[in-house]
Amino acid sequence: MKKMIILALLVSTTMISCAQETACNRTVYLKSFEQQLPKEICLPDGYMVREILSDTVDVSGDGRVDFVAKLQKINAEDGDTTLVVLYAQQENGTYKEWATFNNLFPIYLKDYDFDYENEMARKDTSFFMQLRQRYEYPELSDVYFEQNTIIVKFNTGGGGGILLHFTFDKEINSWKLTKQVDWFGTWGRIESTPDYGTFIPKNQYDIREFNMLDYLH
Q1: Cβ atoms 82, 50 nearer than 8 A
Q2: Are residues 36 and 89 in the same domain?
Q3: CA distance 67 to 56
Q4: Tens-digit pLDDT profile for residues 186-200
Q5: Is residue 20 within 8 Å of 77, Cβ to Cβ?
Q6: Which domain holds residue 36?
Q7: SS3 of residue 108 by DSSP
Q8: SS3 of 156, please?
């Protein structure tokens, strides 16, 4: 009888252990991401690593290289948000989630195209249709990382857009807007950033307050 009880406990413990191991979501868009994704990182349920944005830069200003990933819903639907998750490297070399942003990339739509020749489309005032009208090549938006700095890139027209530089501020323990740069180019490729289009904004707001639509027509 004791052997049966012990055996049952062992089986139960094994099942719990297996359940805990399988509970860690490490879904990736490309198989090559599996080796780059630190082993201790578990993703939010329903999300996958769509892109690794940085794994060579100290974004948080503590002297250690951080890991940043772009996460997208596995079965993304219109209206879903794309996450940018910053995992700060700890003193022991492991990574821990530190900051999550849901406002740095455009809202997900399966189709961003808007037919300006279609009268019905022009009269459609739904939220998603309004996004299609306001976004400018949203699929070319991006986020870059430099020492202590997050740079949000997006298009405001067919020939260019804006780079917003957010620099880490220890007093607020976050990144605040410190520079705005106009860029020009084609198909999302930055070809020039003239001096006359670079300035320090008066409103140096927290990156969590960023809304791309505030900059679009």
Answers
A1: yes
A2: yes
A3: 7
A4: 988 999 999 999 999
A5: no
A6: 25-101
A7: coil
A8: strand
Query: At a CB cut-off of 8 Å and minimum separation 6, what does 38 contact?
Result: 67, 87, 94, 95
Q: How far apart are CA 71 and CA 137, in angstroms?
A: 20
Q: What is the pLDDT of residues 81-134, one digit of tens each?
A: 999 999 999 999 999 999 999 999 999 999 998 775 566 666 777 888 888 889
Which candidate, 192, 188, 72, places its Cα nearest to that of 139?
A: 188
- The CA distance from 116 to 156, in Å, is 17
pLDDT at 11 over 60: no
pLDDT at residue 23, as a whole number: 87
Closest CA to 98 of 173, 170, 188: 173
Q: How far apart are CA 208 and CA 205, in angstroms?
A: 8
Residue 152 lies in a domain: yes
Q: Which two tokens stand for residue 197?
A: 């289009």
Structure tokens that stand for 206 in this block:
């927290």
User: Same domain, yes or no, for 127 and 211?
Assistant: yes
144 - beta bridge partners? 151
Short-list 141, 114, 140, CA closest to 129: 114
The two three-digit tokens of residue 48, written as one number = 């996958």
The structure tokens listed for 182 are 């106009």
Residue 141, Cβ neighbours under 10 Å: how many?
19
**Of how many residues is the chain composed?**
217
